[in-house]
Structure formats: C-alpha cells, structure tokens
Amino acid sequence: MPSLGSVLWFLGGVVMLVVIWRAGIGMLRSMTTPLPPPPPAGEMRRIKLNYRCGVCGVELRMTMAPDEDPPPPRHCLEDMDLVAPIE
C-alpha cells in the first residue's frame, strides 16, 4: 500500500502535468491564430512632426497618426516637446 506522501507527490505531478500541458497548448494556439486585418486606408493620416525629449535630447519624427493633431509621444517618462513641423 502506497504511503500518503507518495500519493500526494503523484497527485502533485498530475496537476503540474495538466498545467504545463494547457499552457503549452495555449501558447501554440496563440502562435497559429492569424493576425488581425490591417486598418482601413482612411484611418491613418500622414503628418510631419518633429519631437524632442526635454530630458535626454532624443529626437523623433512622426509621419503617421490616427488624427491630425496627435498627443505628443512620451520618452524618459515625460511628454516630448514639439520642435517644428517639417515643411
């Protein structure tokens, strides 16, 4: 007759097997799902804006956004400053 400790180890192993199996199947399913379709052509707008981080000085050029006046991007946990629109 198996001891109580052996039974608990066996049940723990079965639980771990089920958890790992389900996690693995979930990961495989997430990799095989198709990507969502791209947004319609009219949703993204072409813009030309330059931003600069006030903390570290990195610069960024934004060329497309969902609206014509997008909120500034964040860098170094701060909003970036608008430098000048590109002409």
Can you characterise this structure?
The chain has one helix at 4-32; strands at 45-52, 59-65, 74-75, 78-79, 81-85. The chain has 87 residues and is an alpha+beta fold. It folds into two domains: 1-33; 45-85, no CATH class. A three-stranded antiparallel sheet has the order 2-1-5, with no helix packed on it. Strands 3-4 form a two-stranded antiparallel sheet. The longest helix is centred in the first third of the chain and has 29 residues, at 4-32.
Which band does the percent of strand residues land in? 25-35%
Mean pLDDT: 86
Poorly predicted residue ranges: none
Number of domains: 2
User: Mind describing the biggest β-sheet?
Assistant: 3 strands, antiparallel
Helix content: 25-40%
Please tell me how large the radius of gyration is. Answer: 26 Å
Strand order of the largest sheet: 2-1-5
Order of helical and strand elements: HEEEEE
Please report the distance between the alpha carbons of the first and last residues: 85 Å
Number of DSSP strands?
Answer: 5
Q: What structural class do helix, strand and pairing data support? A: alpha+beta
What's the number of helices? 1
The 3D shape can be described as: elongated
